[in-house]
Amino acid sequence: MRVLVTGSAGHLGEALMRTLLAQGREAVGLDIVASPYTHTVGSIADRAFVDRAVRGAQAVLNTATLHKPHIATRSRQDFVDTNITGTLNLLEAAAANGVTAFVFTSTTSAFGDALLPEVNGPAVWITEDVTPTPKNIYGVTKTTAEDLCRLFHRNQQLPCVVLRTSRFFPEPDDDPDRRCDFVDSNLKTNEFLYRRADLQDVVDAHLLAIERAPEIGFARYIISATTPFLPQDVPELRFDAPAVVARRVPGYEVEYARRGWRMDPGIDRVYVNARARNELRWRPQYDFAHVLARLQAGKDPRSPLAELIGSKGYHAGAHGSLPNG
To answer: Is the dihedral of CA 93, 152, 41, 39 positive or negative?
Structure first.
């Protein structure tokens, strides 16, 4: 099976290329930036370029995107060109070439204002049944691209799987208050409880989506670390997260105290990956307990793949390649 990977110079794109090639699969990388894992350089907003690139592919992994941080530097039209027109071009070419699996990398940021709890209300339990309410051009273009995937499955019978990934990037948090309140490693470890995934698990989900897409047809899945929390935890979780974590992951406080770390006083949302585990048969390894155990053993909490890829930053051009989490 020949697999086309868009955004091959980015975090996820390179990780997918490395994994596919290591498995002996035929993988072709596409990006606007040259890299060791990019075979063809160009923009997915260019229809003729996309038509040439998709020819001969049996599967498409579309990770190319303008990312949320680009909102400060790129125009709304740039977001439309890359995230909507680029995805449309790929879908058109995939349908015309008989592609058997199209996987679109979306984001949990697409939920937007739906992630915000009510004043004095419980944390929000986020499943695929929650209706997104995008709050910026990034979210709008990603949800529109998701709907294009659904449309192409409906009308062209193109098998499409949308993966709404949570945070997996190694860069510092984009919220200055969070950066001030927590050491970066402390912050990221906390997030494995409710809003982060390891790059290896995200790659595994994408490769499973290729296999399962023909049978699934169309679906959207949340790709985030498995939370230890249960629905009944959300009222207390909003205002006393340390107590809930101590109950669900006993003993975490010892390692945190040793490192001088602290837990979030409250958690406002929880991403739930149950549908991806059940339908994709995805088995994410890097949850909070696993990361904690690695820290206790003096090991890097990241997967070897995440260590290898490292930090890449964001493309400066109009058609960036890093998907958001």
So the answer is: negative
Q: What is the pTM of this model?
A: 0.94
Q: Is 27 in contact with 39 (CB distance < 8 Å)?
A: no
Helices of type H across 132-281? 137-156, 176-181, 184-191, 199-216, 234-239, 241-248, 252-259, 274-275
Question: What is the residue type of 94?
Answer: A
The alpha carbon of residue 102 and the mean position of all alpha carbons in its chain are separated, in whole angstroms, by 16
The answer to whether 321 and 17 have CB atoms below 8 angstroms apart is no
Q: Tell me, rounded to whole angstroms, the distance of Cα 198 from its chain centroid.
A: 10
User: Which residues, other chains included, contact 142 with Cβ-Cβ below 8 Å and sequence gap of 6+?
Assistant: 65, 83, 106, 107, 109, 110, 134
Q: Is residue 266 very low, low, confident or very high in pLDDT (cuts 50, 70, 90)?
A: very high
Domains, the chain, with CATH or none: 2-309 (3.40.50.720)
Which amino acid belongs to residue 65?
T
Angle, helices 252-259/288-296, rounded to nearest 10 degrees: 50
Is residue 116 packed enough to be buried (19+ CB in 10 Å), middle (13-18) or exposed (0-12)? middle
Is residue 142 predicted with pLDDT exceeding 60?
A: yes
Whole-angstrom Cα distance, residue 232 to residue 202? 27
